[in-house]
């Protein structure tokens, strides 16, 4: 897989990007993935700082930092943007997802296409930004090289989410998933299974007890170093539960065939995301037959990072009155 290059721009010798969220991994990683992709296109020293809004409302700020680019994700970041605009008037403010309110507080909103948001400051994308790149996948595979080598034959990564507004990982869903995964093991596949923070505790315990005893199954539920990127890198197929926008899009960045596993519920607007991924050629429903196919890896994060960088350069020129010279293309 080869990620498209983000053009480098001669912006400043020192650019500070704030990533603002409530600290939940699935939320923060969307803003962080965009920040990392934007940083690739910036010449000079770029620093990415985390700003976390705690449940009690307390905000942890970097000790000595003035943001040039502010990237927020999650409801907790929205009211903070208005406050920080007054403190940092020259900063470029970006929000990932649809804020549903205070749209004018942001210079750029990067929203999922399935939300159908539009506006002069809106850029839409398939799914949401993520941190998956060639380098990240390679590093993951190297870090867990010994464990991966112990899994013989063809491998399937299994990414299990959990309860959401529209879906439930209930007993019926758990029964179905366990049966499907057992059938893959019986066919000689090695499985790399990981659950998320949204996976119900009873299902997490059930799967740990069941799959930890099965040969050729690596079950990870949060203990120790996270092999998530190694799973993506080493998989011949990737299975993802249907409710997880982030994991579906991350899987589709690899170029590896992706199968969707159903949960109890109805997709609603997320049916549009599933349709987009199927139209791209990345995703198919799993009907019990393993097929191999190819598609162009989904590089939406790099695409929107390129557009975000261009908007930032325009913003900076407007704020400073100085022209900004474009740099060379990133290798």
Report on this model:
- The protein has 331 residues and is of the alpha/beta class.
- It has helices at residues 25-40, 78-87, 134-143, 145-149, 171-186, 201-211, 228-234, 245-252, 270-280, 300-320, and strands spanning 14-21, 45-53, 59-60, 69-73, 92-96, 108-112, 122-125, 155-160, 167-168, 190-195, 217-220, 237-241, 258-261, 264-265, 283-285.
- The strands form three sheets. Strands 3-2-1-4-5-6-7 form a seven-stranded mixed sheet, sandwiched between helices.
- Strand 4, helix 2 (78-87) and strand 5 form a beta-alpha-beta unit.
- It starts with 13 loop residues before the first strand and ends in an 11-residue tail after the last helix.
Percent in helix? 25-40%
Q: Give the overall average pLDDT.
A: 91
Number of strands: 15
Tell me, briefly, the overall form.
elongated
Largest sheet: 7 strands, mixed
């Amino acid at each position: 897989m080869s990620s498209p290059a983000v053009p480098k721009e001669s912006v400043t010798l020192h650019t500070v990007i704030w990533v603002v969220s409530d600290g939940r991994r699935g939320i923060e990683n969307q803003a962080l993935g965009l920040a990392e992709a934007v940083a690739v296109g910036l010449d000079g020293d770029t620093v990415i700082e985390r700003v976390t809004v705690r449940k009690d409302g307390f905000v942890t700020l970097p000790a000595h930092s003035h943001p040039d680019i502010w990237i927020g994700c999650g409801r907790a970041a929205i009211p903070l943007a208005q406050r920080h605009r007054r403190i940092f008037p020259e900063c470029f403010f970006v929000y990932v997802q649809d804020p549903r309110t205070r749209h004018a507080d942001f210079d750029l909103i990067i929203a999922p296409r399935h939300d159908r948001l539009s506006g002069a400051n809106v850029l839409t994308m398939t799914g949401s930004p993520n941190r998956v790149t060639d380098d990240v996948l390679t590093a993951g595979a190297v870090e867990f090289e010994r464990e991966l080598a112990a899994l013989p034959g063809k491998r399937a990564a299994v990414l299990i989410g959990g309860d959401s507004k529209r879906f439930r990982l209930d007993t019926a869903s758990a029964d179905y998933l366990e049966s499907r995964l057992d059938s893959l093991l019986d066919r000689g596949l090695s499985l790399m299974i990981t659950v998320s923070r949204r996976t119900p505790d009873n299902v997490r315990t059930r799967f740990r007890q069941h799959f930890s005893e099965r040969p050729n199954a690596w079950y990870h539920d949060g203990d120790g170093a996270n092999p998530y990127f190694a799973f993506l890198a080493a998989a011949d197929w990737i299975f993802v539960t249907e409710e997880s926008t982030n994991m579906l899009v991350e899987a589709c960045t690899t170029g590896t065939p992706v199968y969707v596993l159903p949960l109890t519920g109805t997709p609603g607007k997320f049916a549009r995301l599933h349709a987009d991924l199927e139209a791209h050629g990345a995703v198919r429903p799993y009907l019990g037959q393993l097929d191999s196919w190819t598609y162009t890896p989904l590089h939406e994060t790099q695409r929107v990072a390129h557009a975000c960088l261009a908007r930032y350069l325009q913003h900076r020129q407007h704020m400073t009155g100085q022209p900004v010279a474009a740099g060379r293309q990133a290798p």
